[in-house]
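Many introductory courses stop at the sequence. We go one step further.
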Amino acid sequence: MSLLHQESSRDVDDAARGEEFTRGTTHVVRAGVIAAVLVTMIIAFVVLATQKPPVVSGEIVQVWTHPNHVVTSGFDANGESMAKQSFDQVLVFARVKLINQSKNPLVLQEVLANIRQADGILSVSAGSAGQYDEVFLAYPELAALHSSPLSPRATIEPGQSMEGTAFWIFRMSRQEWEARKDLNFTFRFQYQANLVLTPHTAVMEQ
């Protein structure tokens, strides 16, 4: 009886030690999970606290094109006769909205229209506000597109937005324009990274 009783006590002790070990292991695993969650939360908090919004944002509201064939008058600016020239061109107009999300004024230095062709990227600088008005004098049929121009040298104050229409002239035929692979616009700001915007609406021909 004494031997049987001793063997039973040993079994009970082993079982108790096994249960304590299991409980200890569970506590360790639980503590590890909690620590991992806390570390993840701290990292997320630090990232959110240090992450800054982009300095400038914007959108391309609408894009219009006007392909045409040009034949020069045969006279220069002084009225002297010269050989006539003829060529194809595509006028591109884009209604743009820009928002200054920084605490400092943003100076716009240049606006480019970029198209990707089979042989590479072609970039054209936007015309000035003065040239913008001249285009509508030369092409009265485009009067419906006339609105406030977006100056390539504009300044946007902190927290303010600016909306206007910019234009570009591509020396190419309608067929070459329609064969493009891509179209986007680059806004170059002084001392800031470039902002590249892609239109999300169909390009309309006028």
